[in-house]
Design brief:
5-stranded mixed beta sheet, 5 helices, alpha+beta, 34% helix, Sterol carrier protein, globular, SCP2_sterol-bd_dom_sf, Nonspecific Lipid-transfer Protein, Chain A
Length: 125
């Protein structure tokens, strides 16, 4: 079973780039199993400058960014395992944007797909 680690987050960050990406995107998983996060929260913060990811922080607490996307830990695992497309998760209300303008986030949809694909590859899926 895949378990997110800071090493995985760092490797993912090194592989991410998207022309025009700036700022911090936070992916927040709630209802994480206690063995993954005693707080039940696991966040991945990805900081972009000049189109490249420059910093990743995996934490067992809330983090802040220009965009915060939230869903259950199980939903994110289904996305990473290829069992649920990210766009379908949004359409079904299983993922939601809790901070940031949806209209601007739409510009980052190709980046979101790249994050999912590279996260899966780095995790060995």
């Amino acid at each position: 079973m895949f378990r997110p680690t800071q090493n995985w987050a760092d490797q993912l960050c090194r592989e991410l780039s998207y022309n025009g990406a700036e700022g911090v995107m936070v992916i927040k998983a709630v209802d994480a199993p206690a063995e993954i996060s005693p707080s039940g929260i696991l966040t991945l913060s990805l900081e972009f400058r000049n189109g490249s990811c420059v910093r990743a922080v995996l934490a067992e607490a809330d983090q802040d960014g220009e965009y915060v996307i939230e869903g259950s830990y199980d939903v994110f695992m289904k996305i990473f395992e290829g069992k649920l497309p990210a766009f379908a998760a949004f359409a079904l209300g299983k993922l939601r944007l809790v901070k940031g303008p949806l209209s601007r986030l739409a510009d980052y949809m190709p980046l979101a797909l790249e994050i999912v694909n590279k996260a899966r590859r780095v995790a060995g899926f």
